[in-house]
What we know:
Layout lengths: L1 H37 L10 E2 L6 H7 L1 E2 L3 H8 L3 H32 L3 H12 L6 H12 L5 H7 L16 H26 L3 H9 L4 H25 L7 H6 L8 H4 L2 H12 L2 H29 L7
Helix pairs in contact: 3-14, 4-8, 4-10, 5-8, 10-14, 13-14
Main location: membrane
Membrane topology: Multi-pass membrane protein
Keywords: Cell membrane, Membrane, Transmembrane, Transmembrane helix, Transport
Amino acid sequence: MLTTTKSSQGGFVKEVKNSWPLLVMLFPGIIVLLINNYIPMLGIVIAFKKYRLLGNFFESIIMSDWIGFKNFEFFFKTPNAFIITRNTILYNILFIFLGLVIPVLFAIALNEIRNKMFSKLYQSVMFLPYFISWIIVSYLAYALFSIDSGFINANILVPMGIDKVSWYFEPQYWPGILTFFQVWKYTGYNAVVYLAAISGIDSEYYEAAAIDGATRWQQIKHITLPMLQPIMIIMTLLAVGRIFNADFGLFYNVPKNSGALFGVTDVIDTYVFRALRNSNNVGMAAAAGCYQAVVGCITVFTANFIVRKIDNDKALF
Length: 317
């Protein structure tokens, strides 16, 4: 046993000596990861304190009084807790489903285009919305849905003799509108990810299938889709981890923060932002973030456990 331990330690030291240039190159990324992702986690204590400004930021954290779970009571006791939680979960479930199906279909379609110039052009056009901020998207939406000068009212409904629609005061339209803009913005990015995975599939599989007489649809069904399953599962698990986190820019900027639409556009992130802006309660905002992170972590572990039980090789960890 002792010999085995020493042998493994010697192997580790040897590996470090042989790979030290690569490890040195890894240090900047590790430092950035620690600064951006791990050191800020210490601020979770704010969720359990009545944060007051008593000097600089760190002194305020240390000197603020502990209040236990009282910051969490704001969220759970609010009359809108059920509505904003429902909206957050249902929208994310829909986004996860559409974010899996539509990009995969587009990736397969792009892969079937034989003209590489057109394929690259379509990829670029689809990828472009990902780089457009939600503020700009909100103005594009306003250009479409403005009551008086919006394209839909002024150029479609009125010429057809249909009354104008007050889009920003009619909640029933906004689940579809928000879903459209979310899919429009992120489909290109996700499609490129899946297209890269398709490009990594060994062409010999397709050649062998073609020799056996398989059609293109049969090749997609029996080769492409099964080969895409691991990356599809990973992307879905990562999305499931954020099921309690909504895209703030989408839900706050696109509906123009219209109070008439809160019943279908208000989510946890937007509600906490408005509460923080009105009450300046930093502890409450930290508690909401802690709640989202913990529940998201539990959701990821649960989903990964289910996947591992079904097929251990396709689990994320």
